[in-house]
Design a protein that fits this description.
The structure is a homodimer. The first copy, chain A, is α+β, with helices and mostly antiparallel strands. Chain A has a 5-stranded antiparallel sheet. Chain A is 40% helix and 23% strand. Chain A is globular, with a radius of gyration of 19 Å. Chains A and B meet through strand 5 and helix 5 of A and strand 5 and helix 5 of B. Chain A binds a DNA duplex through helix 1 and helix 8.
Chain lengths: 259, 259
Amino acid sequence: MAHKEPPSHSPAARRAARAPGKAPSAPSIQAIPWTATGDDASRVRQLLNRREQRELANIASVVDLRRNAGPLFVAGDKAGYLYSVDLGIVRILKESFAGERQVLAFMFPGDLLGLAEAGRYANSAEAVTNCRLYRYPLKELEQLLTRDPLLDLHLLVKASHELRAAQRILSVIARQDVCDRLVCFLALLMRHESLYDRKSRRLVIPMTRFDIADYLATAPETLARCFGRLEQQGRIRRIESRLIEMVDTAFISGFDNAL
Amino acid sequence: MAHKEPPSHSPAARRAARAPGKAPSAPSIQAIPWTATGDDASRVRQLLNRREQRELANIASVVDLRRNAGPLFVAGDKAGYLYSVDLGIVRILKESFAGERQVLAFMFPGDLLGLAEAGRYANSAEAVTNCRLYRYPLKELEQLLTRDPLLDLHLLVKASHELRAAQRILSVIARQDVCDRLVCFLALLMRHESLYDRKSRRLVIPMTRFDIADYLATAPETLARCFGRLEQQGRIRRIESRLIEMVDTAFISGFDNAL
DNA sequence: CGGCTCTTTGAGCGTTCTCAAAGGGTGTGG
DNA sequence: CCACACCCTTTGAGAACGCTCAAAGAGCCG
């Protein structure tokens, strides 16, 4: 489950205390316009043609955010910007009144951040790894959208993709067996070429067990046990805790199809 | 949990067997164009101005779907239409390979149905109550969108609303305590004026315990126990099984804010 | 080589799932 | 109008999964 207030120095407590403690490096915002020189398959870009990219670049700036730096934005903040991930991984999360954290989504390069409701961010966003983001002022973005219908249409497609992803996760979380949830999660990670190498069948897990636990709505200890069981069953092999060899790929793929 | 194959005449088995058994009345599609005469607060309409409504009406037809009739569409079907709910309630669901059902969302009047991926519906849709839908051919809709940027923008806003709703549910499902989930669900229903009367504090629950169970990822029996506990605690009062008086509204509202 | 974070493993307990069965409510057919 | 059948809902008892607390091992950085 998502973790409550830190009662002691339990794992949950340590994790919860982590982020607030060290936010010495405020998000450094560099006024570097977005030149289309990215290397990673940026899904947002694929969606846009050259002219659209230019127009967006004119209003974009770059934000570098360090892992465990403070949040990019917090739920309830006045929403001034839309972000897109260029490099690294960002988590979108929501904290309940009890202080429980629930990660709603991990955002990969190409994903859009900054869903707002009534002018305020609906969720919080934090860097899982060091990452680089593009920042678009909402005000200028709106002007751009009304001027450029096609851009708008493409963003619509994008939004429905995000929606689809949210529903995917929903059906994963709903599974009773935590082991199943974990396999679904691994299958999801395997879709990213930057994390999974088909030849060696090795998967890099870029986030901690705590992050995964907050995402799959379980406890990190339970995850560790599930990893153990999967290894015992010959489904996977733990090379390092964050580097997994997928042995029974057929088994895993079965879960991927279910998404 | 979502229910598996019917092993006997258990409740789950009965529910699972229900839908496929009786699909004698295929969705009757009447070629009645959408005249803006609806009574219920249709959110889609609110979003559109008069001219936009006229344009949409030109390509829309009406679909009447009876409760427990066959599905409106099934995941994997070739996606030809976008739907919007006019009256009644529709459930969006996904079945895993094991035959487990997971309701991803209940769609109320004004909501849009028919999220597709690669030209095929991503989920299935069934009527929870008798309902009336508007049906828009995707082909014509696309033409309309490219011609009418503003309409497009409004659909974008709509899509982000749906996304927000999906994330909301996600954080609800993630709660460990089923009782909490149920309260969140009730709070969600209370937002609909057509279901909740503020004066009498009475809430109509339009779906069965099985539907709710598939939505909250639990078992109908557990739900019954939660209703019992809430009543015992003086939070609610069961007038009928589908008609609840919200006694401790402050308590319930607390959960609504967390959404 | 500490100190730190992250991960793994163990033991005990609680919630919830499953199976089982009985009690309402509604609709249909006689 | 009544009776039956079906569906929905509720309650009970036992078993299992996962959470919590506790602690030790592993990797990384200064």
